[in-house]
Write a structure and sequence with these properties.
about 75% helix
Length: about 80
C-alpha cells in the first residue's frame, strides 16, 4: 500500500507521473492476479486464470495509450 502523502505527487512533473503510473499499474496487476488465484482455488478450474490473462493486455493497452496522451500533451507533440 502506498503512503498517503504519495498521492499528492501524481500530478507533478513527468517523472513523478511515470512513477505513479508504474506503481499503480503494478499494484492493480498484482491484486488481479491474487483474485485470479483465489478463483482458481475456489472453483477448482483454470477459467479464472484464463479470463484474467486474456483481459490484462487489453487493460494495459488502454493505460499505455492514456500515458502516451499525457506525455504528448506535456511535450507538445501531436498523437495520431
Amino acid at each position: 500500500m502506498l503512503p498517503t502523502g504519495s498521492m499528492a505527487h501524481r500530478s507533478d512533473d513527468l517523472n513523478m507521473r511515470s512513477t505513479w503510473f508504474v506503481l499503480t499499474n503494478d499494484n492493480r496487476r498484482k491484486s488481479v492476479v491474487l483474485i485470479s488465484c483465489g478463483g482458481v482455488k475456489f472453483l477448482i478450474s483454470s477459467w479464472p486464470d484464463i479470463l484474467i490473462g486474456a483481459a490484462m493486455p487489453l487493460v494495459l493497452k488502454k493505460r499505455l495509450y492514456s500515458a502516451a496522451r499525457v506525455f504528448c500533451r506535456t511535450a507538445e507533440v501531436k498523437l495520431i
